[in-house]
């Protein structure tokens, strides 16, 4: 293995089990290619992690938020590349393409199907953990944020400069910006301002040919596609320019918990008719889960009615009492806080100190499976009852459904404004999540959530049954792992995520990446 004598590669010793393995081995070729293009030896040791590197496992696992894909049998990358500058990204694309390795791109590692860090064919991970700069310009109310930053790092960057600007992204502060914006990004400011992706005004992308493009040079078609058409599909987006939005210095949050014995079913039934019509400044959600009953040794189901109002408690209480008296909202259910603290509140974290937003390990990790629905017609009381009762089953001990009201600004944006099509007429989105600790039991829990999803078929949107790309679900259909995937095959899952926008996404993919270099189980295929 003569290339190991190169002075820049003392730490890239590759132990290949093949007899007489030489530079001709594609893995050796790939590393040699990278070594020639990243010629600084001190840099290489901080950028390339091979399987025999002592730090390989810690780098791989640092951003895995679904331990279902962190088992001994989970396929592992031949190498993890943690670029520190744009040229490292260009080099990784060039060498992966030339030496037959699939590239998986990871920003925060929250892909619920592990698609950003697992593949069934030989692959390397491009981990954007070092691309995490956040530059906030309060005067122009914009920010440049790199894809490897988390939503929490962006929120903290905004809040450390101003209390009157925010950004309408999700409540989980450890999500990577790259994946979140690539799929849309809905959060507690969504009824007032729409999606996170609705506020992207420029981007920096490296395409399959290694060209560095911005909004002007990539053109409006590609710029449209990257704002909701999915990550690892059109290129590597390194950074995003986002427009910030006004928020009051104080917002009001509330939680009112109701269990089955406290008419949770009837109150939720009523909520469906009201929540999407409330003022845009009021976001509400219902979190459904199993809890202990007041009767010793028994369980019940709790519906937690949660809300965030862009205003004071004195304005909120009469509003709810008039529009939704069934909830019984009282002043003691409410707390006033800053917008950035409300992110922590909804994330189930202490609201002080806010620098917990910078902690990427603040949330526990577990094995999980998720599915989503968009609901356009209110469920019957009987339907809600059957749904709630499924949470009394043993497999639902660590299950939750997060039901978020739509309407407001989401009703005003056209379906084809961005690839994300779930806009006017949606009453609420439901995100079903089940977790487990023993991997041997995975099948039991996955079967439970599939039964829950099957039960909800009568009540969910139809033709297609819509789904949210940011909670990827490979049950909906997949591309071929090797070889060509037809438009018809991909449309089975693609129409659920993107509806009629899927066709335009395929056309753009065909134009910008006709050889399908950027691909995964649910990436847009070229024609």
TrEMBL record:
It comes from the Eukaryota. The keyword Signal applies. The keyword Protein transport does not apply. It is found in: Secreted, Cell wall. Keywords: Cell wall, Disulfide bond, FAD, Flavoprotein, Glycoprotein, Nucleotide-binding, Oxidoreductase, Secreted, Signal. Pfam families: BBE, FAD_binding_4. GO terms for molecular function: FAD binding; oxidoreductase activity. Residues 1-24 form the signal peptide. Belongs to the oxygen-dependent FAD-linked oxidoreductase family. This is FAD-binding PCMH-type domain-containing protein. It comes from Gossypium stocksii.
């Amino acid at each position: 293995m003569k290339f190991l004598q190169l002075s820049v590669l003392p730490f890239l010793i590759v132990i290949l089990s093949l007899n007489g393995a030489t530079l001709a081995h594609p893995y050796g070729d790939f590393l040699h290619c990278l070594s020639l293009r990243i010629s600084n030896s001190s840099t290489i040791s901080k950028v390339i992690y091979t399987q025999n590197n002592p730090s390989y496992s810690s780098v791989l696992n640092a951003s895995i938020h679904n331990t279902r894909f962190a088992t001994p049998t989970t396929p592992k990358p031949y190498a993890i590349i943690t670029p520190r500058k744009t040229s490292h990204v260009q080099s990784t694309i060039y060498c992966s393409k030339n030496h037959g390795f699939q590239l998986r791109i990871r920003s925060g590692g929250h892909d619920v199907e592990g698609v950003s860090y697992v593949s069934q064919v030989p692959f390397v991970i491009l981990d954007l953990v070092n691309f995490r700069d956040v530059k906030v310009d309060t005067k122009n109310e914009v920010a440049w944020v790199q894809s490897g930053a988390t939503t929490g790092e962006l929120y903290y960057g905004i809040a450390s400069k101003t209390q009157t600007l925010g950004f309408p992204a999700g409540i989980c502060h450890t999500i990577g910006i790259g994946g979140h914006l690539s799929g849309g990004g809905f959060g507690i400011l969504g009824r007032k301002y729409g999606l996170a992706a609705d506020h992207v005004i420029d981007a920096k992308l490296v395409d399959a040919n290694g060209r560095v493009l911005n909004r002007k040079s990539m053109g409006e078609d590609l710029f449209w596609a990257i704002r909701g058409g999915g990550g690892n599909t059109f290129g590597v987006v390194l950074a995003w320019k986002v427009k910030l939005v006004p928020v009051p210095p104080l917002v009001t949050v509330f939680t009112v918990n109701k269990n089955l014995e406290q008419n949770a079913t009837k109150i939720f039934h009523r909520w469906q008719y009201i929540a999407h019509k409330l003022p845009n400044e009021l976001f509400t959600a219902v979190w459904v889960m199993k809890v202990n009953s007041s009767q010793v040794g028994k369980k019940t189901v709790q519906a937690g009615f949660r809300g965030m109002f862009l205003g004071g408690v004195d304005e909120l209480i009469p509003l709810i009492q008039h529009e939704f008296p069934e909830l019984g909202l009282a002043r003691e259910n409410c707390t006033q806080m800053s917008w950035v603290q409300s992110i922590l509140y909804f994330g189930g974290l202490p609201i002080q100190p806010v620098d917990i937003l910078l902690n990427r390990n603040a949330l526990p990790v577990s094995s999980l499976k998720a599915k989503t629905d968009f609901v356009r017609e209110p469920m019957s009381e009987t339907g809600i009852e059957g749904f709630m009762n499924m949470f009394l089953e043993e497999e639902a001990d660590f299950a939750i459904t997060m039901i978020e009201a739509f309407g407001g600004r989401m009703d005003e944006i056209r379906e084809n404004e961005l690839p994300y099509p779930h806009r006017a007429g949606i009453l609420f989105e439901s995100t079903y999540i089940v977790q487990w600790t023993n991997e041997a039991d995975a099948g039991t829990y996955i079967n439970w959530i599939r039964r829950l999803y099957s039960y909800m078929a009568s009540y969910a949107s139809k033709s297609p049954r819509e789904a949210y790309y940011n909670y990827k679900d490979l049950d909906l259909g997949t591309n071929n792992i090797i070889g060509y995937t037809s438009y018809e095959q991909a449309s089975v899952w693609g129409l659920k995520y993107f509806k009629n926008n899927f066709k335009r996404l395929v056309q753009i993919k065909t134009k910008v990446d006709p050889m399908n270099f950027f691909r995964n189980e649910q990436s847009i295929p070229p024609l």
